[in-house]
Design a protein that fits this description.
The complex is a heterodimer of chains A (164) and B (208). Chain A is α+β, with helices and mostly antiparallel strands and 164 residues long. Chain A has a domain at 57-146. In chain A, 33% of the residues lie in helices and 10% in strands. In chain A, helix 1 (2-11) crosses helix 2 (13-20). With 208 residues, chain B is mostly helical. Chain B has helices at 99-102, 105-117, 135-142, 161-181, and strands at residues 53-56, 66-69. In chain B, strands 1-2 form a two-stranded antiparallel sheet. The longest helix of chain B is centred in the C-terminal third of the chain and has 21 residues, at 161-181. Chain B is globular, with a radius of gyration of 20 Å. The chains are: A alpha+beta (164), B mainly alpha (208). Chains A and B meet through helix 1, helix 2, helix 3, helix 4 and helix 5 of A and helix 2, helix 3 and helix 4 of B.
Chain lengths: 164, 208
């Protein structure tokens, strides 16, 4: 775990500090946290499975006060979870709608209408591009792609209107 | 290792969203063409040089892509402090799929790179203080502004940074465990399995 944190520190020092460090006495920073028991870790996965099976996936704060929304999984977390546990990696060519054996024949419920702007299943074009870039013949292991574009902080004075 | 890009502001201001009322509505989408040449992508020079670098294409509209390191060799990865991963030291079930065979380092570290900046922010965080680097996450941030009674007037501050921090820590914990046991199984019980014991699975193979 410390090795992963080390690498995260290297990738994004400020982000890693926010997420993985605790303030100790004075200005000291302590990296890491108490390692959970295996049973705790597996219980957390089960909770996450329940959250998508029962409460769905959310991609907006709209309706945040609706019952159950607070337990739904954020869509970007769902995307990341495909690298964490196989349950969260949909089978290739899944259409996001059909109940699939992989998901215990459950529907995955998206709580907001425009969820499809966030993720998509990997397509043939993406696989070909992956093969070109990675220099590999096979397909990538992951099946979900994130559709966001890079965003940079706007210059001063151009804050979006909703902030005013 | 996050790379910067020229200003790519959100163009679509029609970020209004709502609940899904009908699954028939507006469900089609067009595959985005990831037609960029990675060699042309200008990439900021970053700190480490002991990884061989490779683009991770998990964020298919990122130009340039997230840069991570080579996807083929987990055991060769060395941390900045010179440590190697302890991979497959123990095993829950030797017939279970291997984490290292189902996940490449480039993609996992690409995901961690994305994860660290993919936080939840309240609309009151000024954009120039924002740590977000993704237009869709900015869209989520904007949806926290109370508007048309769709977003509640008050969202507790604990709904933002704390869940994300907990999530990121869980991801690190679980990946570390998965590497230690080299384990990629869909375990069905909430209790942790003991090494070498027979465990039950929802499904045996998770490979797509």
């Amino acid at each position: 775990m410390t090795l992963l944190i080390d690498i995260c520190k290297d990738i994004n020092p400020s982000g890693a500090r926010t997420l993985f460090a605790e303030r100790a006495r004075g200005a000291n920073v302590e990296w890491g946290w108490e390692v959970p028991k295996l049973s705790t870790l597996f219980a957390k996965v089960v909770t996450k499975k329940s959250s998508i099976n029962k409460c769905g996936i959310r991609s907006s704060w709209y309706g945040a006060d609706t019952k159950g929304h607070d337990k739904a999984m954020w869509i970007h977390h769902f995307f990341i979870m495909q690298f964490v546990h196989p349950y969260f990696r949909p089978p290739r060519n899944w259409d996001f709608k059909t109940p699939h054996e992989h998901f215990k024949h459950c529907h995955i419920k998206f709580l907001h209408k425009k969820w499809y702007r966030f993720i998509k299943m990997i397509g043939n074009k993406d696989i070909r591009y992956y093969q070109t870039v990675a220099g590999m013949k096979g397909s990538p292991k992951y099946t979900l792609l994130w559709l966001g574009e890079r965003w940079c902080t706007p210059e001063a004075g151009t804050q979006f209107e909703d902030n005013n | 290792m996050v790379v910067s890009d020229a200003g790519r502001e959100l163009k679509d201001e029609s970020s209004e969203d709502g609940y899904v009322e009908s699954t028939d509505e507006d469900d089609s989408y067009v595959d985005a063409e990831p037609g960029i040449n990675a060699e042309e992508a200008a990439v900021d020079e970053v700190t480490v040089n002991f990884y061989s670098r490779r683009d991770s294409l998990i964020c298919c509209n990122y130009h340039p892509p997230v840069v991570a390191f080579d996807g083929r060799d987990w055991p060769a990865i060395k941390s900045p402090s010179g440590k190697f991963f302890a991979i497959g030291v123990d095993s829950f079930d030797k017939t279970a799929a291997y984490y290292t065979k189902n996940n490449t380092p480039a993609d996992v570290f690409g995901a961690l790179t994305f994860m660290m900046s993919a936080s939840l922010e309240h609309h009151s965080v000024a954009d120039n203080n924002s740590s977000l680097i993704d237009a869709l996450l900015v869209k989520i941030k904007r949806s926290s502004f109370p508007k048309d009674n769709r977003t509640p007037d008050f969202i507790h501050s604990n709904s933002f940074s704390k869940p994300h921090k907990m999530f990121c820590r869980f991801v690190i914990e679980y990946i570390a465990m998965s590497l230690y046991f080299d384990y990629w199984g869909g375990h069905s019980a909430s209790g942790g399995p003991s090494p070498y014991n027979v465990v039950s699975f929802f499904f045996r193979s998770a490979s797509p």
